[in-house]
């Protein structure tokens, strides 16, 4: 990729994360990239095109990272398989937290970007749902524990621990990672088969 385009895409995402779509002017983006606005418009026809390209690149990179650490198609151990995946997703989500909070504040004004902003979360939800459904078939999840409902619980914990700690630090005693682990403990304890079900 052309070095100038690379700098513009990086700058556009940084300014968007900090100030949102309305605050991310081409002047600010060009200054962050170390170029003038004329150079910016040589590569991108509009602010909308530039920010769209930056979000599309961020979406592709996030999905690639998630794909590099997949959950197994044939589950064998919820703790050994699911916990490391959830920790990785939480770390990635917390790293993107500022941009996510900014995007949510302008959600109604960004319909053209919804697919790019939602893509990583959609990928996580679908991977968790498939894994939990397979775990249920393997007898690792108790009967009646709906994979969709469990997925929603896990994603809700990821969202709250990825987004809220900077805003509400007092609500996460011991830090967001420890608090998240306690939530995962409760969810996994609630979906495990009863001992007599395992022995059958």
Describe this protein with a few key phrases:
200 residues; mainly alpha; 73% helix; 0% strand; elongated
Radius of gyration: 20 Å
Look at the structure and give the mean pLDDT: 91
Strand content: under 5%
Largest beta-sheet details: none
- General shape: elongated
N- to C-terminal separation? Answer: 58 Å
Structural class: mainly alpha
Fraction of residues in H or I helices: over 70%
What does this molecule look like?
It is a single chain. The protein has 200 residues and is mainly alpha-helical. It is built from ten helices and no strands. α1 packs antiparallel against α2. The longest helix has 24 residues, at 114-137. The radius of gyration is 20 Å and the shape is elongated. It starts with a helix and ends with a helix.
């Amino acid at each position: 990729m052309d070095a100038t385009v690379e700098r513009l895409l990086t700058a556009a995402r940084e300014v968007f994360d900090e100030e949102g779509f309305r605050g991310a002017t081409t002047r600010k983006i060009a200054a962050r990239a170390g170029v003038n606005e004329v150079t910016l418009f040589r590569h991108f026809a509009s602010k909308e095109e530039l920010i769209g390209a930056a979000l599309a690149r961020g979406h592709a990179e996030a999905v690639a990272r998630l794909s590099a650490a997949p959950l197994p198609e044939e589950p064998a151990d919820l703790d050994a398989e699911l916990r490391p995946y959830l920790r990785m997703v939480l770390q990635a989500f917390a790293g993107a937290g500022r941009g996510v909070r900014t995007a949510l504040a302008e959600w109604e004004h960004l319909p053209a970007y919804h697919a790019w902003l939602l893509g990583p979360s959609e990928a996580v939800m679908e991977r968790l749902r498939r894994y939990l459904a397979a775990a249920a078939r393997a007898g690792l999840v108790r009967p009646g524990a709906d994979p969709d409902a469990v997925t929603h619980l896990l994603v809700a914990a990821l969202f709250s621990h990825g987004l809220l700690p900077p805003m509400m630090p007092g609500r996460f005693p011991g830090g967001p990672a420890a608090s998240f682990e306690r939530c995962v403990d409760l969810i996994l304890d609630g979906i495990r088969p009863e001992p007599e079900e395992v022995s059958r």
